């Protein structure tokens, strides 16, 4: 059957089903409840967490269309895979007893693997996946995640985050693919393709959800769920392209921005949800609210005069499904609004059509049992290997004075600092629990950094530190031990967090970490600084004194092993920064800044620039060439450049192609990443890489808010070379 025939078939089935539905059944489809609504008390530890009477009430009487989360909020925690399969099967069986047998769509935050299934393969978080500059790894992560989500009996993944990460204070920065539009588009699209395949109804594929449309990631004050002020040009230049790419990649659902942009909360922004998302981008899928955000139009935003008005405003603005989440208030209010005609049936039918379409496209109507056997589809050798590779390529060697790294395996090492002996700090939020901090629930077979170092070395490894992130470290003992060792590995960073719980007042490290570092430096032993965490905490003073700096960010469950591989030279580091690493708390300038930001006394002077990352070998790019020095409007320009491994070790290098529009009617960034390629080269090997820059790459949002290419001079930059071409006037 052709794609068109499949689509026609789905549309016919949707319309036939819609024609049979009562108003109550339709409103139920638009309602999503948290699992705790149908759970027994303390369902997270119960063998059978479902209260059967509550489940039957939800599906048979309220016709609920979707359930999300784990038993029982706020005590969300990972569940054994067989328990998930029993739970989701029980839900399917009740849905099969309903009048029209419409399946429930079960949603979960599987943001770096099947995060709420015990022992699942948990990859580096998105910020670290971006640091790999390797879309093949993002594709594999998507494929592994979908397979393990489906093996768990679950249907729908709230991922990827296509918000752009340009506000380092924001506590969800690490859920993004960094500050650059092209990198985020490339990695997010690859993840979606891996997760959904050619047909996300396939047994080992699943639908994705683009988050959080749009502008959520750029709060002015840096705190989660607070206002963004984004002009339309910036919106179209930086914030929309990720979502546009996600729609193009086929993601069938979009989750709406929890906060507000320019005074209009995401859940009532008709312009964003209809004019831009549907009319301009051509999105045909369904939208889902974020957590309790429709009721918050009344309780928090003071936009609605009552909970009833809040429901009306959100539905009429284009919200198809409400993540209510703890009751049936949305269902009751929308039912009444529809009966009085305040929300017309045409709008209800439109929303339900979209939701049913996603359910048919996802293969739910044919899925009466879990699709996949656990064996062969959960924690496979290939999946673990892909994860280890991702962790190795995600870690960034930022400094390596006098080639202190790699370490000799006979070296005697003191390991100290709050992030040295925890798995949680390498994984972050949405890991095993919502905030990711429940270290006692983490797998025992995955090594922390300390354990991985102990496993790999024949030298003495001594640890001075606590069992928890907040435990006080005996500085005097650390200093005494440092004197007796060749080198100190100082592991600093952040505890785990996500969402509003991760708000902070300063990017500075905790004073106690600085105190430990200063005391260690005073004795003069070489120090290797290792950091873990979701955003760039200020490390300038320590980094300047350290012999080596390794930025771990959130490399996932294989992070400890991968970092030890790098420290001892079993892996040659190849990670590159997906953000500009600030020198100080208020010195926040992106790499693709405007000329005015680096003019006179202004400057782009991060501690480490976007794209920075060292290797144990050296690479050189040369012979940058363009196929033409002038092109007609609408033509591509072809770029070739050579890259050579000029060192003594095999290594991987990411070659980045930047473009600069020399003069334009709207101020243009000093440079923008438009293409990149990661290659592995043996010592002395050279490769010629080819890239094609399109009119889209040369375009920008013009004075009249339309995307245009203007004639004039452009510069292509690779490494230290620049080549120029003209776009001729038409």
Automatic annotation (TrEMBL):
<dbReference type="InterPro" id="IPR036881">
    <property type="entry name" value="Glyco_hydro_3_C_sf"/>
</dbReference>
<dbReference type="InterPro" id="IPR001764">
    <property type="entry name" value="Glyco_hydro_3_N"/>
</dbReference>
<dbReference type="InterPro" id="IPR036962">
    <property type="entry name" value="Glyco_hydro_3_N_sf"/>
</dbReference>
<dbReference type="InterPro" id="IPR051915">
    <property type="entry name" value="Cellulose_Degrad_GH3"/>
</dbReference>
<feature type="domain" description="Fibronectin type III-like">
    <location>
        <begin position="653"/>
        <end position="722"/>
    </location>
</feature>
<dbReference type="InterPro" id="IPR013783">
    <property type="entry name" value="Ig-like_fold"/>
</dbReference>
<dbReference type="InterPro" id="IPR017853">
    <property type="entry name" value="GH"/>
</dbReference>
<dbReference type="Pfam" id="PF14310">
    <property type="entry name" value="Fn3-like"/>
</dbReference>
<dbReference type="InterPro" id="IPR002772">
    <property type="entry name" value="Glyco_hydro_3_C"/>
</dbReference>
<dbReference type="GO" id="GO:0016787">
    <property type="term" value="F:hydrolase activity"/>
</dbReference>
<protein>
    <recommendedName>
        <fullName>beta-glucosidase</fullName>
        <ecNumber>3.2.1.21</ecNumber>
    </recommendedName>
</protein>
<keyword id="KW-0326">Glycosidase</keyword>
<dbReference type="InterPro" id="IPR026891">
    <property type="entry name" value="Fn3-like"/>
</dbReference>
<dbReference type="Pfam" id="PF01915">
    <property type="entry name" value="Glyco_hydro_3_C"/>
</dbReference>
<keyword id="KW-0732">Signal</keyword>
<keyword id="KW-0378">Hydrolase</keyword>
<dbReference type="Pfam" id="PF00933">
    <property type="entry name" value="Glyco_hydro_3"/>
</dbReference>
<comment type="similarity">
    <text>Belongs to the glycosyl hydrolase 3 family.</text>
</comment>
